[in-house]
Specification:
234 residues; mainly alpha; globular
Amino acid sequence: MAPTTRTNGSEPPAAPTAAGVRRALEAAATPEELAKIRARIPDPATPVIGVRMGTVFDLAKANREMPLDEVDRLLDDDAYEARLVAVSVLDFAARDRRTTRETRRAMFELWMRRIDRIDTWDLIDRAAPRVLGWYLLDEPRDVLFELARSADWPRRRTAITAAFWIIRSGDLDDPLALCDLLADDPEHFVQTNVGVALREIGRVDPARLEEFLARRGGDLSAQARRTARSALAG
C-alpha cells in the first residue's frame, strides 16, 4: 500500500490484484490441504481451495502492497483462503509503521464495511488487533461496544480481539468494560478471547485483573477463567 517507485527509468511493476491472488491460490492447492482445512472449517458451505497456511501467508506478504480496492475484491471471494489473504494483507500493512494515519483509517473503514465477510475466528484474530485496535488508540471506541452488543458472535469476538492492541498500549478502561459486557457470553469463540484479553490486562495491572475476577470470575467459562488467571501464576 506504499507507493511503488521507478528504478533506472523502468516502469514500476503492476499492482497486485485479487485475480492474481486467486490464480496463485489455485495453483498452490493440493487435495491433502483441502481435506485438512475442510475438517476445521465449521461451516460446510464455506468454499475451501486447499492451500497450506504457510503458503497463504507468504502470498499475502508478497502482495502486501495490494491497493485497498483489490483487497475489497478479495473479500468478495467466497473461498476461505482468499479472504484470509485479504485480512493478512491488511495486517501486514498495519504492522508497517510507515503506514499513514489516512491509510489506517481507510483500512479500518474497509473492515467495518465488509465485516460480514470476516466471519471465522481465525480471520478475525489474524488482523483485528492491529487493523482495528491500533487505529482506535486515538479514536472513540463506541464501535467496539456496538459490536460487543451484537447478536452475531463474530462481531462480539471482533470487539474483544480488537481490544488486544489497546491493552498493549496500557489503556485498560475500555477493554475491561468490554470484558464486563462479554463475561457471561454463551459463545465459546467469544469466551476464549475474553480470557486472553483478561490475561493481557493482568500482565499490565494484576490488581485490576484480580478485582475483575473477584467480581465477575464466576460468569466466565472455565477455559476463559483459567486463561485469565495464568497472568497471576508465579
